[in-house]
Amino acid sequence: MKFKMNPALLALFAVAVVLCTQEAAWADRLSDAVAQAIEAQKIDPTAPAGYLGIPGAPDLNVLVGLVWAIWVGWIFSTVGAFGGIMAGVGHITIYGLGDYAKGLGKQMALNKVVTDSIRVSNQWLVGCSAALSTFNYYRAGRLVAPLGLALAIGSVAGSWLVPWLTAGKISLKAYLGYFGLFVLFLGCYLFYETTPKAQNKKKEAKAAAKAFEASVKSGNVDMEAQGVKVKTFTPTRCEFTFFGVEFHFNPLVPICGGFVIAALASFLGVGGGFLLVPFLTSVAGLPMYLVAGTSAMAVFVGMVNSIASYMLLKGTSVEWGLIGAELVGIVIGSTIGPRTSKYIPDIWLKRLFIVLAVYVGVRYSSQGFLGYSLLPPF
């Protein structure tokens, strides 16, 4: 069996090599924040080193990170979203970094250093999953490359702008509140998308989904012949077919949409898939079977830009040992996702998205704005 390296994944590793040369800048920002916290008696300098080498910080178990990352990779590669959000749940709640940063007080620079580290760590996981998913869905004939490219073009500016404006300025409490609020809004919107009224407006997507599901059940899936086929691609109109159903869109719309989505995603420290899924199902009218791969392509470009912006421009630190273990889990989960998603009905993929969105949205928005969570942790 020959191993073929994903070109997108190679690009992500190249970014990692470049970023590793910036450790001095990260150390300066981190050490200054630690010194301030020690002076304010927020941390004990004699305590054992934990996350990022900070005295008294949580000591993270890389095995837990590996297992959780398998789930993150699977959910992102299955529905094209929630990778960054689930990565955030892991870093904030399961590892306890949210409570730790909150305990420092929002005036402490270390609070913001840990918050930025959570944001960019989430994006490392999503970027890896997006790279793998893009490659796998393209090979499977379930990626609308022109649409993903248009979204990616718009995402470049948005994913550089927000880290430049907000890094080092957002407290953990504010981050949690906005994080949850956006997720809850998107969950409610996608719930509307599953109602009969909304479904009646998407005849093409329903027809394509039914044709694909029928071919999977029959065991006679010829993706080379029936997968995504681009017919025309101009600056103002792109036409393609999927299982005999024709779709079209104006590339200028996803370029603008990509900018807004990437800006919001970069602020929240996630991949943006939870914003891309409603965009691709509502504005582009795609069935869920095409959403995951197309979303992944746009997310990958945004993640590379956002990671570089946080780490190169703002000197944000990450725990490389933890990131390494989590990336292994991401590879496993992202490899399984595209192979299992075809057996899940289109409507159930949307319902899975909705359930996760409502849970995460209510939990984190209440924790951020009210000071306590209305729902229990996982």
Detailed description of the structure:
This protein is mostly helical and 378 residues long. It has one domain (33-369). The protein contains 16 helices and three strands. It has helices at 7-19, 23-39, 62-79, 83-94, 97-104, 109-139, 145-166, 172-193, 196-199, 203-218, 223-226, 252-268, 273-283, 288-313, 320-341, 346-369; strands at 229-233, 238-242, 245-249. A three-stranded antiparallel beta sheet has the order 1-2-3. The longest helix is centred in the N-terminal third of the chain and has 31 residues, at 109-139. It is elongated. The model has no long low-confidence stretch (mean pLDDT 80).
- The helix/strand series, from N terminus to C terminus, equals HHHHHHHHHHHEEEHHHHH
Q: Whole-number radius of gyration?
A: 21 Å
Structural category is mainly alpha
Give me the number of helical elements: 16
Mean pLDDT: 80
Number of β-strand runs: 3
Largest sheet: 3 strands, antiparallel
Low-confidence stretches: none
How many discrete domains? 1
Distance between the termini: 38 Å
Q: Specify the overall morphology.
A: elongated
- % residues in beta strands: under 5%
Residue share in helix: over 70%
Strand order of the largest sheet: 1-2-3
